[in-house]
Amino acid sequence: MRIGSSLFRAGAAAIALLALAACGQSPKEAPADEQAAAQPIAIEGAWAAASPSGASVAAGYAVIRNNAAAPDRLTSASSPRAGRVEFHEMVMIGDVMRMGPMAQVEIPAGGSMTLAPGGDHIMFIDIAAPFVEGESVPLTLTFEHAGAIELSLPVRPRLQPSAH
């Protein structure tokens, strides 16, 4: 009987230790990077450039990562700070770099899209007031599969005077 009793106590202690270890880890305590990686679409490093007084447009930047096994497509973008929001690309036509709206924004499965000064970017059009350094600009991106993602872009100084 003594051996059976000892085995029972050892088994109970092992179960109790496993239960305690499991309690110490909760999904809410996971680091932000791990939580972002768990989402189908993750937006990283989002920010908007300060705009000069009287400007009717402003630009935003971010890295959009698709952690899903299938591509996802942006279906709309909106902000209460702009009449409309578009994704713009920079294209070389002859010897001249031109900016214009993207026909379609698709993030490949397991891939990403980088929006950066001097390159592809988010364009806030018909802004009622300039974007001022230190404030935040709300932005909603809606994807075909991932749905709506609400963002708050901190406004930072422009890096290059001519970059969007």
Give a description of the structure:
This protein has 164 residues and is of the alpha+beta class. The protein has one domain: PCu(A)C copper chaperone (Immunoglobulin-like, Sandwich), CATH 2.60.40. Helix content is 18%, strand content 46%. Strands 1, 2, 3, 4, 5, 6, 7, 8, 9 and 10 form a ten-stranded mixed beta sheet that branches. The longest helix is centred in the first third of the chain and has 22 residues. About 19% of the residues have low confidence.
Topology:
Blueprint: H1 2-23, H2 32-38, E1 41-49, E2 57-66, E3 72-78, E4 82-93, E5 96-101, E6 106-107, E7 112-115, E8 121-127, E9 136-143, E10 147-156
Parallel strand pairs: 1-10
Antiparallel strand pairs: 1-2, 2-7, 2-8, 3-6, 3-9, 4-5, 4-8, 9-10
Q: Main attributes?
A:
alpha+beta, ten-stranded mixed sheet, 10 strands, 164 residues, Immunoglobulin-like, 46% strand
Envelope shape? globular
Strand content: over 45%
Low-confidence stretches: 5-35
Number of helices: 2
What's the quick description here?
The protein is of the alpha+beta class and 164 residues long.
